[in-house]
Amino acid sequence: MKFQILTLFPELFPGPLGHSITGRALNNNLWSLNAINIRDFATDKHKTVDDVPFGGGAGMVMKPDVIERALLSFPEQGRRIYMSPRGTPLTQNLVKELSKEPTLTILCGRYEGVDQRVLDAYGFEEISIGDYVLTGGEMAAHILMDATVRLIPDVLGNETTTDEESFSNGLLEYPHYTRPANWTDASGKDHPVPEILTSGHHGKIDKWRQDQSLELTRKRRPDLLSDK
């Protein structure tokens, strides 16, 4: 899978994605990354990438002609994505869909955003990671890429599975426990593992985990249960 990033700060990539599981997968060529600097495609001596908005208002807007030249420097763009708080929410189902794409080109905005005309002209799909505003799209792109890369075949290997993770079945994930079976905290209070998990009865354990997922979802994300 290939990621192509349009940004004013290419040095931010791969960033955290160059470490741990995603970093090993990058080194093993399970995915690739090419981040280019939009400013390199400005034609004036000051390398201007933004200008004042028509109609007035605060801030600056990234210029469509500069973005277009940067975009077209990629011979093939694949699915074009613009990270934007007004976009379609990033969900696990969307992540699964994106993980099947051979190429994703991600535009990271700055300032007040980018000129709408270049988004319309090239069919950029706007995607949001949440109902808040960041200083730029780079961190949002990291999140989208991390969620997507881990679903590429062979990236996770035997380290974990995605079958029972949060949102994989429409529910939040159940709690996890490990040794010691009875942990005593610094105040001297005991915290034993739920007895069912040490019973060895896999059918009852599966039922307990399903019940826990359902209860956590009901308490914390009841919106996920609206269609159940």
- Summed over residues and divided by their number, the pLDDT gives a mean of 94
Helix content: 25-40%
State which percent range the strand residues make up.
15-25%
Give the CATH topology of the largest domain.
Answer: Alpha/beta knot
Order of helices and strands: EHEEEHEHEHEHEEH
CATH architecture field of the largest domain: 3-Layer(aba) Sandwich
Widest β-sheet, arrangement of strands: 2-1-6-5-7
Number of E-type strands: 9
Unreliably modeled segments: none
Q: DSSP helix count?
A: 6
Q: What overall geometry do the principal axes of the alpha carbons give?
A: elongated
User: What integer value in Å does the Rg equal?
Assistant: 22 Å
Question: What would you call the structural class?
Answer: alpha/beta
Q: CATH top level of the largest domain?
A: Alpha Beta
CATH superfamily of the largest domain: SPOUT methyltransferase, trefoil knot domain
Count of discrete structural domains: 2
Calculate the terminal CA-CA distance, rounded to whole Å. Answer: 34 Å
How would you characterize the overall build of this protein?
- The structure is a single chain.
- The protein has two domains: 2-149, SPOUT methyltransferase, trefoil knot domain (Alpha/beta knot, 3-Layer(aba) Sandwich); 163-228, Orthogonal Bundle (Trp Operon Repressor, Chain A).
- The protein is built from six helices and nine strands.
- Helix 1 links the parallel strand 1 and strand 2 (32-37).
- The protein is elongated and about 70 Å long.
- It is an alpha/beta fold and 228 residues long.
